[in-house]
Amino acid sequence: MPHSIIYLLLCASLCASAAETRPASSDDAYQQKLDEVKKKAPAGFTVLVEKPFVVAGNDEPGQVRQFASGTVRWSVQKLKAAYFEKDPAEIITVWLFKDKASYERYTRELFDDRPDTPFGYYSEKHSALIMNISTGGGTLVHEIVHPYMHANFPACPAWFNEGMGSLYEQSSERQGGIVGLTNWRLAGLQKAIRDGKVPDFKKLTGTSDGEFYNEDRACA
Length: 220
Fold this sequence. Notes:
Glutaredoxin, globular, 5-stranded mixed β-sheet
């Protein structure tokens, strides 16, 4: 077995050893969260429960429900079957903004935030996945990985966490399981390799979270 694979398996084992068992959220907790999000959401938003999340979106109600029962439910089921035993400890809200304009407007109005990505991101501070869903569901699947990694592998380093998210940013189903597909990151990675800008495996896996996120993230 290659040394890199052995290292990844050891890392996963160490990360998992720090995870704690937490009780699942109750129906009352979901109802309370649902009520909170309905009060917070501007007029015209559809808000619904798709466990272990609450989903809120300003697209047509049927479209919001489709993302909830399709992308969110499918990715949660497949990722849990492959990797994760526990749901996130708290109920996270998935905000699906229908276009660039509403994404930029509501991240500012609801969270006093200015995103540094046009696609979407996970905000631990606001217990939210915040998406410009017009860019597609790939980023949503990527970001769903992060709260699951936090719940199950809390000691996991950033390079592993982001690598898992990126792996399933474009994904499909094969023999009942989730598989990662080639996505838009490949071109940037290939260019970085040609330009000699990709760190070796030892350096990459030795980065702190701060070092990892402060580098060029085109291939992260």
